[in-house]
Structures are given as C-alpha cells and as structure tokens.
Write a structure and sequence with these properties.
Blueprint (H helix, E strand, L loop, with lengths): L10 H6 L4 H5 L2 H10 L1 H20 L9 H16 L6 E3 L16 H12 L6 E2 L4 E2 L4 H11 L3 E5 L2 H13 L3 E5 L5 E2 L3 E2 H7 L3 E5 L7 H7 L4 E7 L15 H10 L4 E7 L16 H6 L4 E5 L10 E5 L1 H9 L1 H5 L4 H13 L6 H4 L1 H6 L3 H21 L2 E10 L11 E10 L5 H12 L4 E3 L1 E3 L2 E5 L8 H17 L2
Parallel strand pairs: 1-15, 5-8, 5-9, 9-10, 10-11
Antiparallel strand pairs: 2-3, 4-12, 6-7, 11-12, 13-14, 14-17, 16-17
Bound molecules: pyridoxal-5'-phosphate.
The site of pyridoxal-5'-phosphate has 16 residues, from helix 8 and strand 10.
C-alpha cells in the first residue's frame, strides 16, 4: 500500500536549516561527549550523522524536518553504540554447553587470573630462569601434559585444526596417510579432513566403506609412499547399524609391523573418564596412547575446559620432528593461552575437586533439581511482565547437549523456561522478544522451537540470575511499549 502523500516544505529548505557542525559542537551536550569520547570522535560522529540526514533529505526518505534536539540525540546514541565493545557478552541459554559460536568453554577463576596476570606483566615465557638464557615455551606445560596423558612429549599450537595440519605437514608431506572412509569428517566452520590433508601436502588414501572398514583394508593400502595410519574421532555423528571399524590396538599393530606411526585426532580431549562424574564416556588421550597411538591431537577449549589451543602428545622423536617444522612457529600460541592452559591442567591433578572447580564440568554435571529450583525462583519475577505482553511462562523438561562435537547423540536432562503466546494474536511477540533479548547489553540467547522460546537454564550460573531478570524485564518493557 502506498503511504498517503504528506504535505511538507521543500527539501531544499530543510537542508538549508540543518544545524552546522560548529553549532552542534558548541552545544553544551557536546562538552560531556568530548570529555568522554574525545574531540576527534565527536567530530567524526557529528559529521557522519549530518551527512546521513542530508542524504535522507535528498532522497526524500524523511517525513519530518530534522530538529536540533533530535539530531543531538541521534549523535549521542551513535557515540554510545560506537563505544560498546564489538565482542559482546552473552548469557548462553541455548542448552549447548560448548557452543562454538558463543566461545566454547567458560573458564574457572584460577585460569582467568593466570591469563590476566600473564597479560599484565612480563613473564618467563621462553626464558630459562635457572640458566638465565633462552628457553622453550612448550616446557611450561609439557610435564603436566605428559603426566596427564602418559605421553613422552608434548607441544601446543593455536587449535586442534592446527595440530592436525602441522602433524600432517611434518610427517606426511608428499606422502600418503591412510584413513577410513567412515572418518572423513567435516566439523563446523570448514574443518574437513580431506581439505586439511591437501593443504598440508599429504595425500589422502581412503580405505573401507562409509559403514565398514576392516584391518585388511589398511594392510593392503600400505606401500612405499605411506607415511601414516590415521584415526579420526567421529565427533559430531555416529555410524550405527551394520558397521565395523578397526580398533585402535589393531591399527597400531598394523602400522608398527611396517614401522609406520599411528596417529589419532581425538577432537575433544577430555583428560579423565567422564563416567566417574555420571557423564557419558568420551575417549581420552591416555587411552589412545595405551592402545598404541604414537601421536594424539586434541582441543583445549572443548571438554578440557580451557582456552583455545590444540595439543599434540606422543612419541618424543615425532614431537621433535614436528617442533622443527617452520609451521610450528606460525601456529604457536601466546603467553595468555599458555598461562590459561597451565592453570587448567593443574586442576586435573585433583579429579575429586574437578566438578567444583572446572567451570565446564560444573555446568555439565548440574543437578536437575537445582535447575528446577532456579526456574521456580525466576518464574514469579517474570510472570507479570510476560502476561502484559500476552505471553505465558512454564517450566519445561528439555535435553541439553554438550556441543562442539562431543558425544553427539548423548543428551543431558535439563530444565528450561518455556515462553509461548497466550493466543494467536500474540504469536509475533515471542519472535520479537527473542530478538529484543539478543539485542540486550548482555545478549540473552535462547532457542526458538516452533512457537516457543526456550531458555535452557543449564548454563545460567546463580550469579547471572539477577542480570537475566533485569534484561528480560527491560526487553518486555520495550515489547509492551511498542504495542
Ligand atoms: C573439534 C575437532 C577438530 C577441530 O578442533 P579445533 O580446536 O576447533 O580447531 C578437529 N578434529 C576433530 C575430530 C574435532 O572434533
């Protein structure tokens, strides 16, 4: 439908009455802005706002004449928005604990303190304090990693994708790596085993079929150009039904008979068997090494619960070759990562206190009753504001997931606040609320399921409850006002 024509003054008149940059800068609101944001920034934003308004006038996109107060307000909003960090805080109510798009593992206070201190002060990153000379940054965590995995040596790079890439380039450049067809995985964000292989210079030799691979498939594929036998943990899917895979000890035996290394990409590296905490089991680097793997790679920000990094552990001679590769320098981690990694690994020395101290494990092991109680606490605080917007609220049992490809089919029983429209006319409000929550200063991210907004409480730590209520009430207030 066309809008009815609006009677108004000619655009040229509006343009000529637009306040000047000087007029705005000499306004008393500008004084505060200059103190807070600096003169250059205020000038930049004033100019760009005026130019935008001028453009709108010329293109007939305005129905009202721009006045000084409105312009000042527009500039104030823009200054404020530009001063807000782009990397925004989020309350993760998606139900996915290790959400790659929301930064994966949240970290314990010991880890955060170690990282902050490494950022703030000089530290002996590559400096042997005993000898007073240059040291090796990997040594900060190597002993811990060997202790926790049973490996002889270890090295750290930027992430697990980098670990796999470096391993392949160092050991299989222009040579063949044999992998089962059932394990040619793609992980979110463009990590595909065949592509990584190609870029690393390794030639992929696929054996077996999607659902079944046998020992003889590997044995028969080995030739003079073979460099490695590789197993990739199928992190984000399972092959079920008529399946066969070659167990690790068998693969190790086939490789070792021909003096070849057997390597495993574990993906999520949990250092302990999680079944001791009532969670589903996920293979550990120690198990892979005991099964005969010569090298194992895994992530630090998945189940391990630390900062983004990738770890390679295994035979000393192979780790030495990998560290001599120039790409190791390209992919190395910084002091902040190493400080965080060391601190998180130390927590694993005491498995009994881990569920209280490791933030990720704390979230994964939260009791359903605790989340239920949380829902009952939150509901009365939100009920009235929701009702005003024609929305209803109930507590619903849901299933959370671990995320980041860990334990893809396992779900953890969890509790959510379920927000629905009280009648058909209010259905749009569910979608609007979801959007308003995402736009909050601390963005609140839930999950729309059909016509219901689910706010999974698994990752809502008690200290975040108050902030959540504040943001929800503010969003509902805006929703109500917009009616
Ligand atoms: C997650 C994953 C990767 C990639 O690890 P990043 O730390 O995200 O680089 C590689 N392989 C497997 C099997 C994975 O699960």
């Amino acid at each position: 439908m066309n809008k009815p024509p609006v009677a108004r003054a000619p655009v040229s008149e509006w343009l000529s009455q637009l306040p000047s940059v000087d007029k705005i800068l000499s306004h008393k609101r500008s004084e505060d802005w200059v103190t807070e944001y600096g003169r250059d920034e205020v000038l930049r934003v004033t100019r760009s706002t005026l130019s935008l308004v001028r453009q709108e006038c010329l293109e007939n996109k305005r129905l009202t004449q721009p006045d000084l107060d409105a312009l000042l307000e527009q500039i104030a909003q823009k200054l404020k928005a530009r001063a807000t960090p782009n990397l925004r805080r989020v309350i993760n109510l998606t139900g996915t604990v290790l959400h790659t798009n929301l930064g994966r593992a949240v970290m314990p206070s010991e880890v955060i303190e170690a990282m902050a201190s490494a950022a703030a002060e000089p530290c002996a990153l590559e400096y042997d304090l005993g000898e007073g000379k240059r040291g090796d940054r990997d040594e900060l965590v190597e002993e811990l990693l060997c202790e926790l995995t049973g490996a002889e040596a270890a090295t750290v790079v930027n992430n697990n994708a980098a670990a796999v890439f470096l391993l392949l380039n160092a050991l299989s450049n222009r040579k063949e790596t044999i992998v089962s067809r059932g394990e040619l995985i793609e992980i979110g964000g463009a990590f595909r085993i065949p592509d990584i292989m190609k870029r690393a210079g390794a030639k992929l030799v696929e054996v077996g079929t999607t659902n079944r691979t046998h020992p003889k498939d590997f044995a028969e594929a080995i030739n003079a150009k073979t460099a490695l036998l590789m197993k990739v943990h199928t992190s984000n899917y399972v092959v079920q039904g008529f399946t066969a895979e070659v167990p690790e000890p068998e693969l190790a035996r086939i490789a070792h008979e021909r003096q070849l290394p057997f390597v495993v990409d574990l993906g999520s590296g949990t250092l302990l068997d999680l079944s001791r905490y009532g969670l589903p089991s996920e293979p550990t680097p120690r198990q892979a090494i005991e099964a005969g793997a010569d090298l194992v790679t895994f992530s630090c920000d998945k189940l391990l619960g630390g900062p983004q990094a990738g770890i390679l552990v295994g035979r000393r001679d192979l780790i030495q070759r990998i560290k001599k590769n120039p790409l190791k320098r390209v992919l190395r981690v910084g002091k902040i990562t190493l400080a965080g990694l060391e601190a998180v690994l130390r927590l694993y020395r005491n498995p009994d206190t881990l569920p209280q101290r490791l933030a990720v494990l704390q979230l994964l092991t939260r009791a359903e009753g605790e989340m239920q109680a949380q829902a009952e606490r939150l509901r009365p605080q939100l009920q009235a504001a929701l009702t005003l917007c024609g929305l209803s609220l109930k507590t619903q049992s849901v299933k959370s997931q671990i995320g980041s490809g860990s334990l893809p089919v396992e779900r953890l029983p969890s509790v959510a606040l379920a927000i629905e429209a009280q009648s058909k006319v209010h259905e749009k409000n569910v979608v609007r609320l979801e959007r308003l929550l995402r736009a909050s200063a601390t963005a609140v991210i839930g999950r729309l399921s059909e016509k219901t907004l689910l706010l999974d409480l698994r990752c809502l730590t008690l200290d975040k409850e108050k902030v959540l209520v504040e943001h929800m009430l503010a969003a509902l207030g805006r929703l109500e006002a917009a009616r």
